[in-house]
Amino acid sequence: MPRSLIEVDNLSFGFRGQATDLVEGVSLALNRNETLCIVGESGCGKSVTALSLMGLLPPDATRISSGTITFEGEAIPADDFRRLSTLRGDRMAMIFQEPMTSLNPAYKIGDQITEAVRAHRGGSKAEARDRALQALEQVGIPAAKQRLGEYPHQLSGGMRQRVMIAMALVNDPSVLIADEPTTALDVTVQAQILDLIASLQDRSGMGTIMITHDLGVVAQVATRVAVMYAGRIVEIGTAQEIFDDPQHPYTIGLMSSVPKLTGPRQRLSTVPGLVPTPDRMPEGCRFATRCPFAQSVCATVPPLAPVAGDHRVACHFAPLETRLEAV
Amino acid sequence: MLAFIGRRILVAIPTIVLISIFVFSLQQLLPGDPILAMAGEERDPETIAFLREKYGFNDPLPVQYVKWVTGVVQGDLGISLRSNQPVSELLLQKLPVTIQLAIMAMIFAIAIGVPMGIVSAVKKGTVLDYAANLIALSGLSIPNFWLGIMLILLVSVKWGLLPASGYVPPGEDLWLSIKTMLMPAFVLGTALAATLMRHTRSAMLGVLKSDYVRTARAKGLKERRVILKHAFRNALVPIVTLMALLFGELIAGAVLTEQIFTIPGFGKLVVDAVFNRDYAVVQGIVLCTAVGFIIMNLVADAAYFALNPRLRKQ
Ligand SMILES: Nc1ncnc2c1ncn2[C@@H]1O[C@H](COP(=O)(O)OP(=O)(O)OP(=O)(O)O)[C@@H](O)[C@H]1O
Ligand code: SF4
Ligand SMILES: [Mg+2]
Question: Any idea which UniProt keywords this protein has (chain A) (predicted)?
């Protein structure tokens, strides 16, 4: 069995009509029973990166420049939408931010889950239904049998997100991608959903990629953290490393607003300045326009280089303490 | 469901009363005296007086109205001043012809407009999309009479494939009946198809962007299923509502189409009645059309209701 469930290598893509790639050189790996959090400001490309792993970017509007997605040992070119589409819903599943609108209002919950089973497993309607019922019970929906016959509008937001999770996990995927799964929910429900995902992960050993704005969520669930800025991963490491020893100036900016792991929840909007737009990306380090430490060398792209073990940082001056003193 | 429809019917009643008053006053306001038209060239005063009495024109207006409404409710729409036939009988004769035309036109419109709308939404911005829009634009801008005449010239006169005019009741010879109605229905259906295509396109474009379509794709469903089952099912709500509301356009178009293809339907009845100042018939037609509108609105509501689980379960 390969070590990583999913390994992304040098993924770059943009959208039609944009000169530069929005997402550039993204590499990351996800292991069994691990939660990788992707954090970064709004618009930095977290969602589109997740969608690209699922092969869900609009094919006619997307320009994939490079990238290989190695899924459970099978190397798939990032532009092989066809192969990716056969994995999704089966080996790889995704849940979204908006539980209120993510279920089809016209069909019963049961039919929507059953459909996911039959799309990949075939089998009889009755078998699929049993499987759907199990999945609903697994995510802690009371009176699951009755829920099968209900429509999405009859459920609360939290319940709908549980249904989404049940639907995503009904085929026992090895990777779950959760794109801000709790942002639209109120705080107590948020905690329940996060606990639910964690316990399901413990049971099945799946890997989770969790996209979030919320450093409180990161602190609660992350095994490892990838910090994204303007379409690039600028720092990646264990949760401990990122929180206790952030190396990239952008990460430091984010963390300085969160005094402790247990501190109050904070949105990632505290670094001064604005994210560069896709048509005005700086040539070298994309953070240069906002970086207090920027030098002329920053006009070249800093590689995502290891500072210690698996802790990698994309800054010419990392590790910061030593290098900055030298300047 | 039944309660909902019942409520809608109750709401429709005042509308019907208002329409009936309007239709009744129509005859008072219209220029031209039908009795004079009936009395012929001589205009013998005695004949005129006799006719006025016979047809109740001497009663006070409210009395005339009540008499009229009572009759209408019992299916008595008066006597055609022209043909001396009961108006209800005339309507019952002509209505099925037009209904057949309308249904066949609607089938054409749906069969052409809906698939074209889906394809142009799914293939937005491609050659297919532009082609579909161009076809829709021509469908809207080519006048029906021109299209009708061209079809008659080509299909009937030159190729001799289909009859150029007339009507055969389906009970007599179903296949011939359909064949005869094919061209008129196509002509009447084209403009509707264009309208339907545009609405289907925009409804589909909206729905294709929705989160649940993304979810359907994330489940790994085949694109075909995503579009037809998940997207189209939700786009159907505005489309079906629109179809019911296109009824007015259909009737207006039918009048003209029936003239082109000399079909003895409702449209011909309308034209003849108006030219002859045959008020009873005009009244019957207006009333009938108005009730038709109300029924189609009810159908639209019911369809909206039936397609919306959110309303259904309450
Ligand atoms: N189909 C598309 N065509 C062109 N641009 C797109 C498309 N989809 C997304 N984008 C752009 O890509 C950028 C990144 O979007 P993305 O949704 O990934 O950000 P995000 O990091 O998830 O932000 P948020 O935290 O707000 O969800 C945005 O600027 C967005 O406008
Ligand atoms: S490479 Fe330069 S601009 Fe980029 S983060 Fe490091 S110091 Fe700042
Ligand atoms: Mg996002």
Answer: ATP-binding, Cell membrane, Membrane, Nucleotide-binding, Transport
